[in-house]
Amino acid sequence: MQLPSGLIQSELKIFETRFKEAVKSNAPMLDRIMRYIVKRKGKQLRPMFVFFSAKLCGEINDATYRAASLVEILHTATLVHDDVVDDSMERRGFFSVYALWKNKASVLVGDYLLAKGLLLSLDHNDYQILHILSEAVRKMSEGELLQMQKARTLNLNEDIYFEIIRNKTASLLASACAAGAWTTSHHPETTEQMRLFGEKAGMAFQIRDDLFDYAIGNKSGKPSGNDIKEKKLTLPLIYTLNNCDASTRRNIIYILKNRNKSPQDIRKVIDAVKAAGGIDYAIEKMNGFKNEALDILRSFTETQARQGLEDLVHYIADRNY
């Protein structure tokens, strides 16, 4: 499944120029880091959701470009900070900002990006867009902290897992869709409808990410076991712990607590999850969220923008990296 970027090619080209301008700095070191970040940007998935959501509800305008830039700025800021928190040396196959410029610079770069995002909206009186995105940043922080807390206690509640990914991952995608819709509709109900659509798509996105740990849909075909190493209780593992026999459960918990860096023991956990049906259960849940997102979309008139959003949802669920 390919990204439907061709449908908004001209918008993305304009966006790239405006995004570069939005993060520029007069401080030489900071500007060098910004250029490094811009050069190694990802698939621009979230800006695409902004543009298609805006197009679904009206004509793309300057506020739409600012909303797309704000979404990407906030997303980039969280990634820079995440690399510090996770002690991560790589980002998208390249050295991370943290690897090249270390802790202090990385934290300040993340802070700078947050400030630039705030000013981008405030300078143009985009108060509603700023409110929508600020809510997402709050939820993302809460989701990360809740995940850290539950990793320590190995809480096995599926509802807690969904709360974590709703806040940590889905909230930004939900806000991207809501912000895009608001820029062209200024309609609270339509904006909320698109926010809910983005949230469902974001839930499917995170579950697909969880499945990569078990080599399901993974481009390399090799399980990474990274979530197990970090004691992250993802959906396949939670299902397994709640549905396996007592002995298997004890062994998995022991490995998570004491041997979560051992490749052989990680392999045992992965095999246990597959045997217990944890993979199939997670795929079923992912497809459920995907279909709920598509159902919301189908309440809108069939247009090229709607088709673009449908393609994005399918891409999220079918991607292999």
Short précis:
The chain is mostly helical and 321 residues long. 76% of the residues lie in helices and 1% in strands.
Walkthrough of the structure:
The protein has 321 residues and is an all-alpha fold. The chain has one domain (5-318): Orthogonal Bundle (Farnesyl Diphosphate Synthase). Helix content is 76%, strand content 1%. The protein has helices at 9-23, 28-39, 45-57, 62-85, 97-122, 127-153, 158-185, 188-212, 226-229, 235-243, 246-258, 263-276, 278-297, 304-318; strands at 90-91, 94-95. It has a two-stranded antiparallel sheet. A hairpin with a 2-residue loop joins strand 1 (90-91) and strand 2 (94-95). The protein is globular and about 60 Å long.
Entry keywords:
two-stranded antiparallel ribbon; single chain; Farnesyl Diphosphate Synthase; mainly alpha; 321 residues; 2 strands; 14 helices
What's the helix and strand layout?
Elements: H1 9-23, H2 28-39, H3 45-57, H4 62-85, E1 90-91, E2 94-95, H5 97-122, H6 127-153, H7 158-185, H8 188-212, H9 226-229, H10 235-243, H11 246-258, H12 263-276, H13 278-297, H14 304-318
Antiparallel strand pairs: 1-2
Helix pairs in contact: 1-4, 3-4, 3-7, 3-14, 4-5, 4-6, 4-7, 6-7, 7-8, 8-13, 8-14, 10-12, 10-13, 11-12, 13-14
Give the N-to-C terminal Cα separation.
12 Å
Q: Portion of residues in helices? A: over 70%
Structural class: mainly alpha
Low-confidence stretches: none
Main sheet characteristics: 2 strands, antiparallel
How many extended strands? 2
What is the H level of CATH, i.e. the homologous superfamily?
Farnesyl Diphosphate Synthase
Strand order in the largest sheet:
1-2
Percentage beta strand: under 5%
Oligomer: single chain
CATH topology: Farnesyl Diphosphate Synthase
Q: Can you tell me the number of structural domains? A: 1
